[in-house]
Amino acid sequence: MTKVIARTVGRRKSAVARVQLESGKGEIVINKRELDDYFHRGFHKKLLMEPLEAVGVTDQYDIKINVHGGGLSGQAGAVRLAIARALEKVNEDFRLILKRGGFLTRDAREVERKKYGQPGARKRFQFSKR
Question: pLDDT-based confidence at 11, cuts 50/70/90?
Fold first, then answer.
């Protein structure tokens, strides 16, 4: 059994990702499914691989991920942040590279609430003069 090196949490929109980093050969498992089975769009796969590629450790760690809430884009962003935080825990030298790449910054943008008397947050019903 492999030893867990780091456990971290990442959040984006309403998605929460919990990541376990273990020494291994680069396998990524998300909610007990392979990476390709969970994220079908290449953009999402590329997004969560960015911190690993930035520090050059794509095939050194096995990553187990539990993610829930939100949609796939929010989940991919949450996983990306959690992976970056885990890599920082493993090796403090990675911090500068990850910080410059913007991987350690939490994207705080949330959905604005709908207001009464309007169909959405900002959109108004069509105005009629007569």
Answer: very high
Is 130 inside a domain boundary? no
Q: Are 8 and 82 in contact (CB under 8 A)?
A: yes
Angle between the 94-101 and 42-55 helix axes, to the nearest 10 degrees? Answer: 140
Residue tagged 């997004």 (tokens): 47
Q: Which residues pair with 62 in a beta bridge?
A: 22
8-state DSSP, 1: -
Do 111 and 13 form a contact (C-beta atoms < 8 A)? yes
In angstroms, rounded to a whole number, what is the distance separating the alpha carbons of residues 15 and 8? Answer: 14
- State pTM to two decimals: 0.91
Q: What is the per-residue pLDDT for 3?
A: 82
Whether 10 is in a domain gets the answer yes
Nearest of 104, 103, 121, 102 to residue 112 by alpha carbon: 121
Tell me which residue range forms the domain holding 26. Answer: 4-101
